[in-house]
Structure formats: C-alpha cells, structure tokens
Amino acid sequence: MIGQIMGRVLDRWDTGVVVDVNGLGYEIHMPSSCAAKFPPSEKDVVIYTHLVWREDTLSLYGFESKEGRDMFRLLLQVSGVGPRVAMNVLSMLGPDELIDILAKGENKRLQSIHGVGKKTAARLCVDLKERAKGMLEQRGANYADVAFMPKDEGNVYNDALSALINLGYKKGEASAAIRNIMKQHEDADWSLEELVRAALKALVREREPRK
What we know:
- The protein is of the alpha+beta class and about 210 residues long.
- It has three domains: about 5-65, CATH 2.40.50.140; about 65-140, 5' to 3' exonuclease, C-terminal subdomain (DNA polymerase, domain 1, Orthogonal Bundle), CATH 1.10.150; about 145-205, Helicase, Ruva Protein, domain 3 (Orthogonal Bundle), CATH 1.10.8.
- Helix content is about 50%, strand content about 20%.
- It has a five-stranded mixed β-barrel.
- Strand 2 and strand 3 form a beta hairpin.
- The longest helix is centred in the middle third of the chain and has 21 residues, at about 120-140.
- It is globular and about 60 Å long.
- The chain starts with a strand and ends with a helix.
C-alpha cells in the first residue's frame, strides 16, 4: 500500500496531479476541491494516498490530509460505492462536514451529489452512522450534543465557529467549546463578539496544564 507521496507537483488538472518523486512521475487522482490547492511548484508537497488495485489498473487517489484519505477508505467499505462515487462525495464535502451528515443520517443532503442516488445515500447513512458517531466522540464532540447544534447558516454559532477556526483552533474543539457555553446559558442572547470571547476563555482554560 502506498500511503503517502512527497515530491514536486509537475502538472495538475481538474481532478488530479502528477508528482515527481526522484524522477518518477506519480499520477494521483484527487477531489476537485483538493487538486486546486496543489499548483505546479518547485517545492515538495505531501499527499496522503490510497492505492486501488484492480485486474487491469493501478490507481492512486490522493488527499491533502489523513482525515480526507480515511474518509475515502471508509466510503469504499460501503457496498456499491466505488472510487469515483467516493471522490464525488469528497469533492463536495469536507471530512468534518461528511462525518456530521452521516452521524445525523441526513441522506437527502447526500442525494444532491453526482452519482449518489436515493438508495446509495440511504446505504451510506445506515452503514456508516455508528462509525461517524464514534469519530465525533473521538474528536471531542459527543454525539448526544449534536442535535443541539444550531442548523441555520449565518447564525451566531456558525460565525463564531468560523472565527475560531480562522484563529487556528480545530473544528471539533471549537465546536465543543461554543456548544458548551450556549448550553450553560440557554437564555442568553449572544452577540458574535461575546460568544467568541467566552469560547476563547474556555479553550485557554482547557489547554492550561492541570496541577
């Protein structure tokens, strides 16, 4: 198994790149959203890969993060989902967003992706729901609290989450901090500035060494 490629990007197209490793060019298929982040350059890049071996072809699929590669491998475990469909899914959804969708069983959101019909979307949610819940718990977002997340785009929760991510915090820890604060003060009418300030204080306390 080829799990990682490090080298210089020689060429790029909409859904892949060619990476030079000591004079050998590896053709790597990537989600379109990911390939756009790897323009030809003189600098070495690291791409996390998965090798698909079939009778007549060897194909490398690559991702900018281990999380993206792990989600690709997870999707391939579902009956009827091949590399092309898995790549379509990951071209439209990032790993964190996909995990949330699977954990909530929101198969209608998956049906809008090319190649994912009603049956495939339902199968993805049924087969991967428990795995997705486990992933949420591992990254510090207890599934029991997922239903509490505000769902309307543009609300103060999403704006605060975006602000904390831009400050360098991981989505899981930022989301958990915001939700804990909002649960502790359910009647509060938070402004964006107040919510971000309170979440930052909680995150700093969490990272302080315990005596």
